[in-house]
Design brief:
Layout lengths: L12 H10 L2 E5 L6 H6 L4 E4 L11 H7 L4 E4 L7 H12 L6 E5 L16 E5 L5 H4 L8 H6 L34 H17 L4 H13 L7 H7 L4 H13 L28 H7 L4 H5 L2 H22 L3 E6 L6 E7 L4 E7 L10 H10 L5 E6 L5 E4 L2 E5 H5 L3
Parallel strand pairs: 1-4, 1-5, 2-3, 3-4, 8-9, 9-11
Antiparallel strand pairs: 6-7, 7-8, 10-11
Helix pairs in contact: 3-4, 7-8, 7-11, 8-11
Length: 404
């Protein structure tokens, strides 16, 4: 008899439980196949899987759903249409007790109608592709960012167990790919399913897939939309439709540009990323050997990997993840994380021993913002943690991705 694989904790688990204890409705969004249902089922008393249970909602959904023991999980709720949200609204208006409904969805509707029915009645969380820590079973451990903000950053002299291996970049963040010796088959199929979604929406699936490949090739680059639609050989209008769909299926993960009235001539272009680095490598038709022989290329996908690790950490602290680049590219900071009290800068370097020269963008940002920058980190692929200047520290990537 096959054994059930043990549950791997997620960074989001604690916040999901808290949301259910405080909100009548919790909406859990995220890309298809990242584990939303697996996590949600553990907290639900009643579960409706759509489209399998769609017939149960067709006669009198208000009466039927109101009678079910909560929390009621409506998995892939969007398959029932946005009318379902109005039903949920009526039920929680009559009884706004916390934890009535948990809705999971992998595709946001293009339109909710005249108004969004659950405004003021719901909490919304996003589950992202699994991080290295989650894949290794450390999803419940305190994250790098939460430790930094709590006043417990990595200390000079701290070391990681081993240097970072680029092979981690090709490890997909989708639970279904975990046991596959060659995950490219899973990733190819995944990309084609997403492209088929575009076909179902009346778009050209082949061109949509080509646009995804262009996005993957442009990983970690701050470019205007025009660069994408010209490279994909599509029109501006077509790209706008594709971009909207990539956002609604939660696969596009652009990092917006940081803005400050203390800094001049900053670019407004976002950096382009897909939510999963391994998927981007697969779509760009890149292998590990390609990265190992081209440090510049490897550096861009390493940055993508670091952003993938940081996104759920930034979500957890209710922060914003941005990048900074001057208009002509003289100065760049890979990641700027802003919370209500802190501003943290991060540079990503492929190398085991970054120097003060690698910290120059962070030193410049620290000086320009005159005390606004709380901490700066040069994240590298070596093992040692050491200072590079006032409030600027070199930190191994392994200490950012996993527990110390």
């Amino acid at each position: 008899m096959p054994q059930t694989r043990a549950y791997l904790p997620r960074h989001l688990d604690a916040e999901l439980r808290t949301a259910l204890s405080t909100s009548p409705v919790v909406i859990l969004d995220g890309p298809r196949g990242v584990g939303k249902t697996t996590s949600a089922v553990r907290l639900a008393t009643t579960t409706l899987f759509l489209p399998r249970d769609l017939a149960l909602l067709e006669v009198d959904p208000d009466t039927y759903l109101a009678a079910l023991p909560p929390p009621v999980l409506l998995d892939e709720w969007q398959l029932a249409g946005t009318d379902l949200l109005w039903t949920v609204k009526r039920i929680v208006d009559a009884d706004p007790s916390p934890g009535r409904f948990l809705l999971t969805g992998s595709v946001e509707p293009a339109s909710y109608g005249p108004t969004y029915p659950l405004t003021g009645r719901s909490s919304r969380l996003v589950m992202r592709p699994m991080t290295w820590a989650e894949l290794e079973g450390y999803g419940e451990s305190a994250t790098f960012l939460s430790r930094v903000l709590a006043g417990d950053p990595p200390q000079p002299g701290a070391t990681s167990g081993s240097a970072f291996d680029l092979a981690a970049l090709a490890r997909a963040g989708f639970p279904g790919a975990r046991a596959m010796p060659d995950q490219r088959y899973f990733l190819d199929a995944y990309a084609n399913v997403v492209a088929q979604r575009a076909g179902d929406a009346g778009r050209d699936a082949t061109r949509f897939l080509r646009a995804m490949r262009v996005m993957s090739v442009l990983t970690a680059q701050a470019v205007p939309d025009q660069r994408i639609w010209e490279a994909a050989d599509i029109t501006k209008v077509t790209w706008k439709h594709y971009d909207d769909l990539l956002g609604r299926v939660h696969l596009a993960a652009p990092v917006p540009a940081y803005e400050s009235n203390r800094l001049k001539r900053l670019t407004s272009y976002p950096k382009r990323f897909l939510a999963d680095t391994a998927l981007a490598l697969s779509l760009a038709d890149l292998r590990l050997d390609d990265l190992r022989t081209d440090p510049t290329l490897a550096g861009r996908y390493l940055e993508s990997f670091v952003m993938q690790q940081l996104r759920p950490q930034v979500d957890e602290v209710r922060g914003a993840l941005m990048h900074l680049r001057t208009g002509a590219g003289e100065r760049e900071v890979d990641a700027v994380i802003e919370t209500s009290r802190d501003l943290i800068g991060i540079e990503v370097k492929l190398g085991a021993r970054p120097t003060a020269a690698d910290a120059r963008p962070l030193l410049w940002l620290r000086d320009q913002l005159k005390g606004r920058l709380t901490q700066g980190y040069v994240v590298h692929t070596g093992r040692e943690c050491y200072p590079l200047g006032d409030r600027i520290t070199a930190v191994p990537l392994a200490l950012v991705t996993g527990p110390t």
